[in-house]
């Protein structure tokens, strides 16, 4: 009996050895960590979930003969909550890749876990340039935009047009600090001056005291080093204070089409904005935008289009690699060009930065718009090598 059982056990071991690993046999699972209830829910949120589903569907819905799974959770914009969920997903729920991350603080926290577990994460919402700078990781890709790219695209254009003195309204966490730092560097490099700044909490309802300080600075430009609902509230209240249209102007360094939609063209007209995607750029962007609109009833933000792109690229890389092994898949992601509805000229660098063209837009006047979501005039396409920080300048330890 022992001999029979041992022989059977040996045969089972041999069969296991020639078959893919148990992990390879499990369904591929993608986790979306987003903001579903707060200041960044419009720019990512459920739109990012829907974009992930669209990418899975367009890929074919299966990997290695099994359906691709997706899970999602609200991080409440808290690093500890994000870390707790990510740890659970990677330890016990078989998640292979985590995408989105709504704030830079949540992204940096989960990046540390990603290194610990050797798992891939793709940041499509958070913006700090530190993600691919001093805090870079071999397992993280940063997809959509970052504070360096937006600062150089918007900040340099405004300074060239005479906006040479700045005062910043800054969200008081790593994203806001990064926006202020990177934009301030651009302003000073162009010969302008930063006259000061004031920090405000995330998800601020009343900007009156902060706007009064900005007004008192006499700076030509009030730079909004914030995003989402904070940017919308700041612009609305600046209009109520009579700041816009006087001797001072606002610069929204990080702004989205959803913000313009919420404000309306009457308030947003004339703003100079940097975006990585706009639905009405070309046939590919229009086709994706209209599909997204049918499902979500809103045009996609650049973050939502990027989440689609990043998910699809990841799936293509896993398929091309023939494995879900992290290092092998990351190498394939860097090898394959990014060509999709988000960009037709993307490349993933060794520091984790996915570089691509950025676009400089001006928000249309109400009378210039031909219909819903027709909000932007294209001023310039900024090539990747001009928009994003040079590889050698980021301080990423991975860069030799």
From TrEMBL:
Protein name: ABC transporter permease
UniProt entry keywords in alphabetical sequence: Amino-acid transport, Signal, Transport
Homology family: Belongs to the leucine-binding protein family.
One Pfam family of this chain: Peripla_BP_6
InterPro entries in the cross-refs: BCAA_transport, Leu-bd, Peripla_BP_I
Top-rank taxon: Bacteria
GO biological process terms held by the UniProt record: amino acid transport
Annotated Leucine-binding protein domain residues: 27-364
Signal sequence range: 1-23
């Amino acid at each position: 009996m022992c001999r029979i059982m041992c022989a059977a056990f040996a045969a089972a071991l041999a069969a296991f050895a020639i078959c893919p690993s148990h992990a390879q046999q499990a369904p591929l699972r993608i986790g979306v960590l987003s903001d579903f209830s707060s200041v960044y829910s419009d720019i990512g949120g459920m739109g990012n979930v829907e974009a992930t589903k669209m990418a899975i569907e367009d890929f074919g819905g299966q990997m290695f003969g099994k359906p691709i799974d997706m899970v999602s959770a609200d991080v409440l914009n808290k690093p500890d909550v994000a870390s707790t969920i990510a740890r659970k997903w990677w330890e016990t729920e078989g998640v292979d890749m985590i995408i989105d991350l709504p704030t830079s603080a949540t992204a940096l926290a989960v990046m540390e876990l990603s290194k610990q577990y050797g798992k891939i994460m793709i940041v499509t919402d958070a913006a700090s340039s530190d993600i691919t700078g001093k805090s870079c990781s071999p397992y993280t890709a940063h997809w959509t935009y970052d504070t360096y790219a937006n600062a150089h695209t918007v900040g340099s254009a405004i300074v060239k047009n005479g906006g040479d003195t700045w005062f910043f309204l800054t969200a008081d966490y790593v994203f806001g600090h990064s926006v202020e730092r990177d934009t301030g560097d651009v302003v000073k490099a162009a010969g302008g001056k930063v006259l000061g700044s004031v920090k405000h909490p995330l998800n601020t309802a009343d900007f009156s005291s902060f706007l009064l300080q900005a007004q008192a600075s006499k700076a030509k430009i009030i730079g909004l080093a914030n995003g989402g609902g904070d940017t919308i509230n700041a612009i609305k209240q600046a209009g109520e204070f009579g700041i816009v249209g006087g001797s001072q102007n606002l610069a929204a360094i990080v702004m989205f089409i959803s913000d313009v939609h919420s404000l309306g063209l009457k308030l947003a007209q004339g703003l100079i904005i940097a975006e990585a995607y706009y639905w009405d750029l070309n046939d590919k962007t229009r086709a994706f935008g209209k599909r997204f609109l049918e499902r979500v009833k809103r045009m996609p933000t650049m973050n939502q289009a990027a989440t689609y792109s990043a998910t699809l690229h990841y799936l293509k890389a896993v398929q091309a690699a023939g494995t879900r092994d992290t290092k092998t898949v990351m190498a394939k992601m860097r090898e394959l060009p990014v060509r999709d509805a988000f960009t037709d000229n993307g490349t993933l660098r060794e520091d984790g930065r996915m570089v691509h063209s950025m676009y400089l837009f001006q928000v249309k006047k109400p009378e210039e718009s031909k219909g819903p979501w027709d909000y932007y005039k294209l001023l310039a396409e900024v090539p990747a090598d001009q928009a994003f920080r040079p590889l050698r300048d980021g301080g990423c330890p991975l860069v030799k």
